[in-house]
């Protein structure tokens, strides 16, 4: 069997088209457009690439972006001051502080300083706290986990009652995606480096979300026939045959797993484009809320 390819690039393009239309309507009705502030500290290549892609996507959708590229050695106080200025700026409806931050910065303090109503990344402790409790509604849900659920929904995958296995327990993906699956009534296991018989646990999954950051760790014989596989991994591996000298690969051995799964996301072109689409969605929803359109 060869699995259905879950085309994140196409699904994200559809969503970005929907957002573009909403932004045009907003501009006609209110004269305003959504605004996203991106805060990048330091010179990490991957973070620079992500922020550049986010700004480009904003532009295409008609969303204003406000970039703050800051030196690695910025002090905690200076960074807090910038966040507070963005909180007070009425043209900014969303604030994204790209993670990870340098070690001398207290990440929790910075994320906690973001105005809850502009927390389009959903990492404010109150938004995360609400996400982690029953019958509490976070104002915003983190973008990559939200994108994973959107991929399942738009592919017609039922979540309720399914065994879901999340590989990885990061604050950015593993933990929040597990909460979202649980809220949708999946039975959820979260696996990590200390999990005993990892292949055996992964093999129980009807829905597998792989988010460990280990290239091609999930092999074909780890996957239950017919499972749906969402690969969040984005790993650069050396490849002398490629022009750049490396290629991007997921946490899943795609060629093996596609023969076993019923549906699978590719890397690149699966979850990655969805993260950005969900950021634009959260920013546009925030602007609608601020402009009292909802
Ligand atoms: N670093 C890796 N993924 C993300 C994300 O979704 N948001 C932010 N702010 N930083 C990240």
Oligomer: single chain
> What bound compounds does this protein have?
guanine
Helix percent band: 40-55%
Count of helices? 10
Low-confidence stretches: none
Please list the strands of the largest sheet in the order they lie side by side.
1-11-8-7-5-6
What is the ordering of alpha helices and beta strands? EHEHEHEHHHEHEHEEEEHEH
Radius of gyration: 19 Å
Average of pLDDT: 97
Tell me the strand percentage band.
15-25%
Distance linking N and C termini: 46 Å
Q: What is the strand and helix layout of this fold?
A:
Blueprint: E1 4-5, H1 8-30, E2 35-41, H2 45-61, E3 64-70, H3 76-88, E4 94-97, H4 107-113, H5 125-131, H6 143-154, E5 163-167, H7 174-183, E6 187-191, H8 198-202, E7 207-210, E8 228-231, E9 235-238, E10 246-249, H9 254-257, E11 263-264, H10 271-290
Parallel strand pairs: 1-11, 2-3, 2-4, 5-6, 5-7, 7-8, 8-11
Antiparallel strand pairs: 9-10
The structure holds guanine (GUN).
List its traits.
single chain; 294 residues; six-stranded parallel β-sheet; three-stranded parallel β-sheet; 16% strand; globular; binds guanine
What's this model, at a glance?
The protein is an alpha/beta fold. 40% of the residues lie in helices and 16% in strands.
Protein model, in words:
- The structure is a single chain.
- This protein has 294 residues and is an alpha/beta fold.
- The protein has 10 helices and 11 strands.
- The strands form 3 sheets. It has a 6-stranded parallel sheet with strand order 1-11-8-7-5-6. A 3-stranded parallel sheet has the order 3-2-4, with helices on both faces.
- The relative contact order is 0.17.
- The mean pLDDT is 97.
- Guanine binds at residues 96-99, 121, 143-144, 172, 275.
- Guanine binds next to strand 4 and helix 6.
